[in-house]
Amino acid sequence: LNNYVGFDTVTHQIERKFLKRGFNFNVILVGETGLGKSTMVNTIFSAHLIDSKGRKTAAETPRKTVEITPVSHLVEENGVKMRLTIVDTPGYADQVNNDQCWQPIIKYITDQHRAYLERESSPSRDRLIPDTRVHCCLFFISPSGHSLKPLDIEVLRHLTQVVNVVPVIAKADSLTPEERIGFKRRIKEELAFHRISVYPYASEEDDESDKTLLQTVKDLTPFSVVGSENTFMVDGQPIRGRHHRWGIINVEDETHCDFIHLRNFLTRTHLHDLVETTAHMHYETFRYQSKKRKRL
Ligand code: GDP
Ligand code: MG
Questions:
Q1: Which atom of ligand 1 is least distant from the CA of 170?
Q2: For residue 72, what pLDDT is reported?
Q3: Percent of residues, the chain, with pLDDT higher than 90
Q4: DSSP letter string, 107-164
Q5: Is 0.95 exceeded by the ipTM?
Q6: Which residues line ligand 1 (CB under 6 A)?
Q7: Ligand 1 pocket: which of 30, 39, 42, 175 to mutate (most atoms <8 Å of CB)?
Q8: Closest ligand to 50 CA?
Q9: Where would you tag: which of 105, 124, 169, 202 has the fewest CB atoms within 10 A of its CB?
């Protein structure tokens, strides 16, 4: 089975340097319990990153409060080292009253910005500040086929202010291809209507190839994904898939879902940009606002 992720193949010189130094990549998972968040991370990064025992207990006894738990893993491919931290947010939307349920998530993200700022401004600062800033938020949308929930819109509105948000339609295998297309279109319309800007963003510095890439990603967003930790033999080849009444869904087949596009996007085409955009946009915004607060 091909467990190769591919983050060592990024070609640009600057990105090669960034990769050679070794780097942190911090991803936060947001979405209702049972939408396949843990499974998706394991499907993308192949190894069993999230303790499956821990996951099961969490699923059986929904927690009353949102407990945010970062888990780090060292991932190495062809000499390129990445410290991957997955921040799980169990309990989202599980409560009777979900007012402000996004607060602990926003707090976690801004706490990392604050910690970085404190280190950066301390006189005896380390040459390399450990980067715990969240570079990407995978936001899992329930495959209702209808529209976003009011809570999703509210939460997205807050999240997009502080972090790169990448929305995905979870468990896309529960929708027909036609339903998927319609759902995707409606979500795009809703995001536009509510002026919620998800990652990636257009920039004035974009050249023609950047623009083409941006458009490709915009068209795919929200990625329809299917996750699986099981492998099946199909025509003598091991494939990662899910068994259904009508056959086996190959999660890596792009005619079945956008999983492969999401994985390429996260681990190849946009890995470096997610880290850069976090530093240059979200962190800078935080820094600017905290300076302003100090002056008041
Ligand atoms: P989490 O609570 O969001 O972390 O969800 P889990 O990853 O623990 O998954 C919950 C259940 O959904 C498990 O039984 C998974 O096998 C199943 N599951 C995960 N991803 C998918 C998917 O893409 N499609 C389907 N049909 N089931 C999935
Ligand atoms: Mg989970």
A1: 23
A2: 86
A3: 54
A4: HHHHHHHHHHHHHHHSTT--SS-------EEEEEEP--SS---HHHHHHHHHHHHHS-
A5: yes
A6: 33-39, 55, 59, 171, 173-174, 226-227, 242
A7: 39
A8: 2
A9: 124
